[in-house]
Input
Amino acid sequence: MKTSELRLMPTEEIKTKLSDARNELMNLRFQTVTGQLTDTSRLPITRRLIAQFETILRERELAAKKEGAA
Output
């Protein structure tokens, strides 16, 4: 999913997807440790997605704070 598409999502949906991505990352880590994970490329993809979600949420938080102060 492109970052421009993520920015159009409502905040609550991003928070839900962030939670889902964190759970997926945890499951991927368990699968790696137990030797069940065959597609290891999903780990960095999931971490990158989590970072994108957190960045967008932080940008919105800072924008809201700036609007409140102005």
